[in-house]
Amino acid sequence: MTALLRTATLHGRDVQLGFGDGRPDMTLSLFWLRDHDPNEDALHPETQQRLIDTFQIPEDIAAQSIAVTEEGRALQVRWLPDGRVSRYQAQFLAALRPDPETMPADRLLWDGTSIAAQVPEVGYAGLMAQDAVLLALLENVDRYGFCVVAGVPATPQATCAVAERVAYIRMTIFGGYYDFTANLAHKDTAYTSMAIGPHTDGTYSLDAPGYQLFHCLAAECSGGDNVLIDGFRIGQIMRREHAEDYALLSTVQIPGRYLDHARGIELMARRALFRHDRAGELVQVSYNNHDRAPFLLAPEEHRRFYRALSRFARLCADASLHYRRRLLPGSVLLFDNWRLLHARDAYVGYRRLAGAYLNREDVDSRLRVLRMRAGAAV
Predict the structure, then answer these.
(1) Nearest Cα to Cα of residue 330 among 215, 179, 160
(2) Is the Cβ–Cβ distance between 116 and 323 less than 8 Å?
(3) Are 286 and 271 in contact (CB under 8 A)?
(4) How many Å apart are CA 61 and CA 54, to the nearest integer?
(5) What b/e string do you get for 319-346 counting C-beta neighbours within 10 Å, with b at 16 or more?
(6) What is the pTM of this model?
(7) Contact by Cβ (8 Å): 30, 15
(8) How far is residue 253 from each of residues 177, 305, 311, 347, measured CA to CA in Å?
(9) Residue pLDDT, tens place only, 47-98
(10) Geometric angle at alpha carbon 104, from 102 and 105, rounded to 5°
(11) Please, which residues have CB within 8 angstroms of residue 274's CB and are 6 or more apart in sequence?
């Protein structure tokens, strides 16, 4: 929907804008407008990088006139003292918000029953050939926190092909593409046949991987089911029913640690279990009881912390919140590691799983561009 300007009114050193679609008025300072001048000598036409020297703009910069032009599609500012004219597209102005780095999301929080009735899935052949299917994959991950890709050849090459169809693979201490069995190749319980409790990956990373991909290459075993849990759904429950515990887990910085001294590795990071943006919206769940490092709080605060953490863990263990799936050769699972917790049952036999991490900003970039292209094509 194209946004059109209805009015532009100068109030001292500010401009008040009214839009024709009913959205609230917007007020921008003249200094801000000059700093965002779209003319080619102020904003590079190809890179969209700022060329103007912000700090040479007079603090008391003034306008000779302002006007809505092009039948509401633009704001025109004529500057003092030189009569320079700047035109700002209404669509650009309407899209401004305090948190431009945040992706608009239409999330659907789920429990085991609701997601089992509408498991998000796309096909491998379509994914590799059509941007529309890639967009569907990423929209599903954005909405539900995960999506299954069906019909993928059970090879490492296909694992990498699916990952790189989305974004480049992130390098970590496990490498880029990783491929594991119960061989303890790394100091991690994932490299055993033991059960692994609900967790998110990378609690020991300052920037935990945004997305994770699993691809089953072999499943000659009994057990080994994967479990997904919507961490944002648990957050919703705790915020509503256990507000004090939720607040505590939103403030205590829990340290995560990964140790492999034989390889000279000791990673550590600190993060609240529930992390929010400036508006108070939940943006990340970060939890791995296996990797939680020792840390000190005052005794009474530690007691409250353990009570809150226990409440969260009990919700994670609630089978009604679980989506359980046995990954078989040919199935790829792409999921949001900032939203979903994942777990695995113990197994007996041979199981080979491949995977990769993807950076959040790269996946978000792909989704932004695909949305833009799809909108332009309509």
Answers:
(1) 215
(2) yes
(3) yes
(4) 12
(5) eebbbebebeebbbbbbbbbbbbbbbbe
(6) 0.87
(7) yes
(8) 30, 11, 17, 34
(9) 999 999 999 999 999 999 999 999 999 999 999 999 999 999 999 999 898 8
(10) 115
(11) 235, 246, 249, 250, 282, 284, 285
